[in-house]
Write a structure and sequence with these properties.
Elements: H1 2-35, E1 37-38, E2 41-42, H2 43-50, E3 52-57, E4 64-65, E5 71-84, H3 102-113, H4 117-129, E6 136-138, H5 148-157, E7 162-171, H6 179-182, E8 185-191, E9 197-203, H7 206-210, H8 212-216, E10 220-225, E11 239-241, E12 248-251, H9 255-272, E13 276-283, E14 289-295, H10 312-315, H11 325-334, E15 343-345, E16 348-349, E17 358-359, E18 369-371, H12 372-378, H13 381-392, H14 394-403, H15 427-433, H16 443-454, E19 459-460, E20 465-470, E21 475-479, E22 484-486, H17 491-506, E23 523-530, E24 546-554, E25 561-568, H18 579-596, E26 612-613, H19 622-631, E27 635-639, E28 645-648, E29 655-656, E30 661-666, H20 679-689, E31 692-697, E32 700-704, E33 717-723, H21 729-735, H22 737-740
Parallel strand pairs: 4-12, 27-30, 31-33
Antiparallel strand pairs: 1-2, 3-10, 4-5, 5-6, 5-7, 8-9, 10-11, 12-20, 13-14, 13-25, 15-18, 16-17, 19-22, 20-21, 23-24, 24-25, 26-29, 28-30, 32-33
């Protein structure tokens, strides 16, 4: 009986226990059924999430273009290859959609991806051997950023299980072209709010970094419900949010002028191997920067082993040397204390026994008693010091340095601008500042100040961004306008200083005679500044250890362009002097830029070359019109074998020099032989034919990707490789003598060497 009672009691307890569990579970199921939630998580939402695929629709990063719409930076499509390993992905065994043969796949992909077959085989096998096996695998860097050609080569193999994703890569079609302004962007990875690793293109330097928020745009997405194998359901509840592409940034740069500058600097870099070079070309009346370059430079498509990240034009202050004298003379003239015909004794200037004497550039020998006008022409340090100490007064001169904004940044729309420093504590520093020693400025500060002289006293703010445009609507979101920031001098003073600058170039005693142009008048000031030693113990010694520079403007009567060039520590031959590499850049860029801008020549005492009026070209027979032009001395290239001319790089009625290279495009365009062409000429051809141009290097064409005679259509790709002038360049020089003519020898070789 006791055993039976115990059994019944235990059975009762178990029944109660199981009933309680049943009630709890049933209640839980009823609660879940009624609320649709588990632990405050909606089962309906959880189910949707599990069967919903969501993909980012990346926004296209905005383009960077020059003022004329030439593309300088854009997103270029590339491809990432991956392999699907899961055999369940193949619905039809006769048409497999996964990797079937690892060895065959590896052997076929290896030569296209330029890797060892064993590397691909190991990646595939590692995915298969994983626990659990991986659905798909990738191939690291070797399988990314593939070109369209590589993708097509792989697709032709028809390998089962091999697929592609399209990715964007930032591309710079002109290579080192204005790289310190444009900068570069690259793909970076980040973790989103869901913990997933995403990637996007972000600006790193230059305009890419400065305008990153506007260029970036906003990504969209697409989501849909799918099955186990990622195939859409019949009712996928698809949601699409379109991406908002980034805005396009138009710069004030002119690709043709920038190309002229880059070519000239590459020539000097090859010939003289300087430590550093800077150059900038600016519109005198607006402040638009048309070209800017620093060397060493880098290729933003492959920014490795970069020797100089800084845009030296805005970020590296230097002692300006005698280029600053134009502002010293401008201050004296504006204050009414200057008499150009007044004489003084050149050579040395000893203010008092406590101050080290100031010496002129020829070791203090001077040129005897000369006028102050001649002192400017000869770049006399003594004349500059006398003007500040005796005529103007040191405090008044400091006021003018401030008026020319030598103590502040220009606020140019580029990242990384810094300002120089005016050393003005001791009498010696006040004297040396008058001729560009001790105190420092950046080239862009000098350019801004020079606009006051070029622009009848109105000093304008330099700028690089022209406008911001919405690419989807072509609406101009923001437009930069010229801005006059101050008027430090009067129009009369500016005109008088321009006359002095012209004497430096054209006067019989001028230090800048080798800067004379063929067709245009030019005025400017040469400079030779010593370089402080790294240990702070004075200056470097030796005739090459200098910064040779020139700040000038043309045409001098009514300047359109202002230009600054500096070349640091060039390797000179015994019979060469430092202004030769500087003058080569100034002459070739300024002369050709003014012609390109259709500025009327005004040069005097220059042998005139008869200009030829261009006849009507479009609609004409290419062979006949080419023969007519060649008879007049033109170098003519006919693009294609069509029956009529549809486009040319010159217009009817235009009067041009017979040295011009004329390009005639026919109604059946075909690729011409462009070997030996300059980059500027190829850019002109690409503009006319709307080709996608990709260039590597600088100088002249040594390789073209499209064979001569190949038919062309709009959007065709053209890749070229250029090399600096060398043995191949000698032949090109004969065709482009106007660009590369060397400076005429003069008997005046006076360089102002600041102590």
């Amino acid at each position: 009986m006791r055993k039976n009672k115990t059994t019944h009691m235990m059975a009762g307890i178990l029944i109660i226990f199981f009933v309680a569990i049943f009630i709890v579970l049933t209640g839980r199921f009823i609660y879940i059924q009624a609320t649709g939630e588990v632990n405050n998580i909606s089962l309906e939402e959880w189910a949707k999430q599990k069967r919903t695929s969501s993909y980012t629709l990346p926004a296209e990063r905005g383009k960077i273009l020059d003022k004329n719409g030439m593309i300088l930076a854009y997103d270029r499509p590339t491809y990432r290859v991956f392999a699907i390993l899961d055999d369940a992905y193949s619905e039809d065994p006769e048409k497999p959609r996964h990797v079937v043969d690892v060895d065959k796949t590896a052997e076929a992909l290896a030569p296209i991806l330029d890797v060892e077959a064993s590397d691909i085989r190991n990646s595939l096998q590692a995915g298969l051997d994983a626990d659990p096996p991986r659905f798909q695998v990738e191939f690291g860097n070797a399988g990314r950023q593939l070109s369209q050609k590589q993708k097509e080569e792989i697709e032709e193999l028809k390998l089962p299980g091999i697929y592609f994703d399209e990715e964007a890569m930032r591309f710079y079609p002109n290579g080192v072209f204005a790289s310190h302004i444009i900068g570069f962007a690259r793909e970076t990875e980040f973790e989103d709010e869901n913990g997933e690793i995403k990637s996007e293109i972000s600006g790193v330097t230059g305009m890419e970094k400065q305008m990153d928020d506007l260029l970036r745009g906003k990504n969209g997405y697409i989501s849909y419900q799918r099955d186990l194998y990622n195939s859409k359901l019949l009712n996928p509840n698809e949601v699409i949010k379109e991406p908002e592409d980034g805005n396009d940034v138009y710069l004030t740069l002119d690709q043709k002028i920038q190309t002229l500058l880059d070519e000239a600097m590459s020539t000097v870099e090859s010939s003289y191997s300087p430590e550093r070079m800077t150059a900038v070309v600016m519109h005198a009346k607006t402040g638009e920067v048309l070209a800017m370059s620093s060397r060493p430079s880098y290729n933003p498509n492959n920014p490795e082993d970069v020797q100089n990240w800084y845009n030296d034009v805005i970020s590296t202050p230097i002692e300006p040397g005698s280029t600053v004298k134009m502002f010293t003379w401008a201050a004296a003239i504006e204050e009414g204390v200057y008499n150009g015909d007044e004489t003084y004794l050149s050579g040395t200037y000893n203010v008092n026994e406590k101050i080290i004497p100031i010496r002129d550039v020829n070791e203090g020998k001077g040129w005897g008693t000369i006028t102050f006008d001649e002192g400017f022409e000869r770049s006399s340090n003594v004349a500059a010091s006398k003007l500040v100490w005796e005529k103007l007064g040191t405090e008044k001169f400091l006021d003018y340095l401030h008026a020319f904004d030598m103590d502040k940044t220009t606020e140019i729309d580029l990242p990384g601008e810094i300002t120089g420093e005016i050393l003005y504590n001791w009498p010696r520093e006040k004297l040396t500042t008058s001729f560009g020693q001790g105190s420092t400025v950046t080239p862009i500060q000098m350019m801004k100040a020079a606009t006051a002289i070029a622009n009848d006293g109105k000093m304008v703010k330099p700028y690089v961004i022209n406008k911001i445009v919405d690419p989807s609507t072509s609406e101009v979101i923001d437009q930069n306008e010229p801005e006059v920031v101050s008027e430090p001098i009067s129009p009369e003073t500016a005109e008088q200083v321009r006359g002095l600058l012209q004497r430096v170039v054209e006067g019989k005693n001028g230090t800048g005679r080798q800067f004379r142009l063929e067709d245009y008048s030019i005025g400017g000031k040469t400079g030779t500044a010593q370089i402080p030693s790294a240990d702070g113990g004075g200056y470097l010694r030796g005739r090459e250890n200098m910064i040779f520079s020139f700040l000038g403007m043309a045409p001098i009567e009514d300047p359109e362009l202002v230009m600054f060039v500096s070349v640091q520590q060039p390797k000179l031959e015994a019979d060469e002097h430092g202004s030769q590499p500087v003058s080569f850049i100034v002459k070739s860029v300024m002369e050709n830029s003014l012609h390109y801008l259709n500025i009327d020549p005004d040069g005097e005492d220059i042998e005139e070359i008869e200009r030829v009026e261009i006849p009507e070209l479009t609609g004409k027979n290419p062979e006949k019109i080419a023969a007519q032009l060649e008879e007049k001395g033109f170098n003519v290239t006919t693009v294609g074998s069509g029956k009529q001319v549809v486009q040319a790089n010159v217009t009817a009625g235009e009067k041009i020099l017979p040295t011009k290279h004329i390009i005639l495009v026919t109604d059946e365009p075909a690729m011409p032989d462009i070997m030996g062409w300059s980059q500027r000429q190829v850019v002109e051809l690409a503009d006319m034919l709307d080709l996608q141009l990709e260039s590597f290097g600088n100088g002249y064409v040594v390789m073209q990707s499209v064979e001569p005679g190949t038919s062309l259509r709009e959007g065709s790709y053209l890749g070229i490789e250029l090399l600096p002038p060398g043995e191949e360049r000698e032949e090109v020089q004969e065709d482009e003598s106007a660009d590369d003519e060397q400076a005429e020898e003069t008997d005046v070789e006076q360089e102002e060497t600041n102590e």
